[in-house]
């Protein structure tokens, strides 16, 4: 009846009609037949539920606990709850609900904080609902229909902009042990990146940490251009998993509107842990480090949703990976490294010396990088990497005084430039560093000639001036004093 009226164009009516369409023709009920830990077994719905399907278990007292089917055993459906199971007992009713959870975002969601169900949790009132329903679980765009990664994206962090340049639509991992500065780095990226919109998923952190991060690190101006999805560590695993899906779905909404989206997820490890808990509860066998096989099937499904779109917009993804005990080869880190287009490794030793962000450049890589840079930029970075690597090789000998100055010109050079490189790499969290300035500052630090502006255009005329590569840096006469002074101030107690 309502299908053809003039009102169907209005969002409210469309939402209503969509919802009517989703309602089941009849109500279907089952009964709870067992509860074991988090796992609720329901009889009577096995013919109508499928994996991923939803139902509400009605606890004594009438509270509804949304649940999701994660398996079937002996003709019963196995469900995991999205909330507390308090009051759920044998014989409680379980009612089939909509099969596919969706979200209806609008641009008014910017500046807001939501939970895994897409409900506001920032006390700023209700969220307007948009016209289009975005499924929380969506497949990534087809590989052949996807654009290629776009031009460079200015991430506002000097060390990443220059040494680990990212392109629009690229996906990078930030790998580190706990307390090495992942969250602080993420907040810098959220505030300083030249993207249209941030979608930030905070998954599995403690509640207090989330509040502090939102207020102290992200701040009001960072929040204004972000939507933040939060699922804290005390929430059930399906909720934490759904927060990751929602983060991707919201990114897709903004991408489909032609925006360049920066999708930040902290952390993929906690998401993988939620998957592990779900897998184990459903009776999957544990494989490596207790992670079940489905975890490694699911990770690429989610991370692949970031990337270039098929049309205008893109999702640049930065995902943190917690490496427990600083073991960079644990299974989740390994799997994620294989899926992404590069990794940024933060190292405790560097943080302990006081240099933030504590990026170990020699262990980090951006796989799009040599191709997106000009010849001059690549030469500059190669030279800087060579100096860093020589210094690291000799570091031990230098520190204990076993290296005699003058015995190897390359090592002498590495020692000479090391404090300047350290100063260049350090960046206060309140400072934004533009991508163009980064190259000029690095060139100045290494006494290499540099022509601002000409740098980013392919095959620029300046390339010839850098032809000498490493040797050019041996001429201290080239030093440009202005950027060097700026760096000295910034360095503070950091550097060495
Ligand atoms: N850029 C930075 N500048 C100064 N201190 C930092 C910086 N990054 C991290 N820190 C210090 O390290 C601590 C832990 O950082 P955090 O980002 O919370 O670590 P993670 O998220 O890896 O556990 C912070 O509380 C802060 O004291
Ligand atoms: Mg953190």
Automatic annotation (TrEMBL):
It comes from Ferruginivarius sediminum. Residues 458-481 have a biased composition (Low complexity). Its EC number is 7.1.2.2. Keywords: ATP synthesis, ATP-binding, Bacterial flagellum biogenesis, Bacterial flagellum protein export, Cell projection, Cilium, Cytoplasm, Flagellum, Hydrogen ion transport, Ion transport, Nucleotide-binding, Protein transport, Translocase, Transport. The keyword Protein transport applies. Belongs to the ATPase alpha/beta chains family. This is Flagellum-specific ATP synthase. One of its GO terms (cellular component) is cytoplasm. The lineage of its organism: Bacteria, Pseudomonadati, Pseudomonadota, Alphaproteobacteria, Rhodospirillales. Pfam families: ATP-synt_ab, T3SS_ATPase_C. GO terms for biological process: bacterial-type flagellum organization; protein secretion by the type III secretion system.
């Amino acid at each position: 009846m309502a299908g053809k009226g003039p009102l169907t164009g209005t969002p409210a009516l469309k939402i209503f009609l969509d919802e009517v369409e989703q309602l089941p023709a009849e109500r279907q009920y089952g009964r709870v037949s067992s509860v074991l830990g988090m796992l609720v077994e329901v009889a009577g719905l096995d013919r109508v539920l499928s994996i991923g399907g939803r139902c509400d278990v009605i606890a004594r007292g009438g509270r509804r606990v949304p649940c999701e089917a994660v398996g079937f055993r002996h003709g019963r459906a196995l469900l995991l709850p999205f909330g507390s199971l308090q009051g759920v007992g044998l014989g409680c009713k379980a009612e089939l609900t909509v099969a596919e959870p969706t979200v209806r975002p609008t641009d008014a969601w910017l500046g807001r904080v939501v939970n895994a169900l897409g409900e506001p949790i920032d006390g700023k009132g209700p969220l307007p609902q948009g016209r289009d329903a975005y499924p929380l679980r969506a497949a990534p765009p087809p590989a052949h229909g996807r654009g290629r990664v776009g031009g460079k994206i200015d991430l506002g962090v000097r060390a990443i902009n220059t040494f680990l340049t990212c392109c629009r639509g690229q996906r990078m991992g930030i790998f580190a042990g706990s307390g090495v500065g992942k969250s602080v780095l993420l907040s810098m990226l959220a505030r300083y990146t030249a993207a249209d919109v941030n979608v930030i998923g905070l998954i599995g952190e403690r509640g207090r940490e989330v509040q502090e991060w939102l207020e102290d690190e992200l701040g009001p101006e960072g929040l204004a251009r972000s939507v933040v999805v939060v699922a804290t560590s005390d929430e059930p695993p399906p909720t934490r998993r759904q927060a990751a899906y929602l983060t991707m779905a919201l990114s897709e909404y903004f991408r489909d509107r032609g925006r360049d989206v920066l999708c930040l997820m902290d952390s993929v490890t906690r998401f993988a842990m939620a998957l592990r808990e779900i897998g184990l509860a459903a009776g999957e066998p544990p494989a490596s480090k207790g992670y079940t096989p489905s975890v490694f099937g699911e990770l690429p499904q989610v991370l692949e949703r970031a990337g270039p779109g098929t049309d205008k917009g893109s999702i640049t993804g930065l995902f943190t990976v917690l490496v427990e005990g600083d073991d960079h080869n644990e299974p989740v880190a390994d799997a994620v490294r294989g899926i992404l287009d590069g990794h940024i490794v933060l190292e405790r030793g560097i943080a302990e010396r006081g240099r933030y962000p504590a990026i170990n450049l020699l262990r980090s890589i951006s796989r799009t990088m040599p191709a997106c840079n000009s010849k001059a930029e690549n030469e500059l970075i190669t030279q800087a990497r060579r100096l860093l690597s020589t210094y690291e090789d000799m570091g031990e000998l230098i520190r204990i005084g076993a290296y005699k100055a003058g015995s190897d010109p390359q090592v002498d050079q590495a020692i000479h430039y090391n404090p300047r490189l350290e100063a260049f790499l350090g960046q206060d969290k309140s400072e934004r560093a533009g991508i163009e300035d980064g190259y000029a500052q690095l060139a100045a630090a290494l006494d290499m000639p540099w022509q601002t502006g000409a740098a980013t255009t392919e095959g620029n005329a300046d390339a010839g001036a850098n032809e000498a590569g490493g040797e050019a840096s041996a001429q201290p006469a080239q030093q440009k004093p202005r950027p060097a002074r700026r760096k000295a101030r910034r360095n503070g107690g950091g550097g060495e």
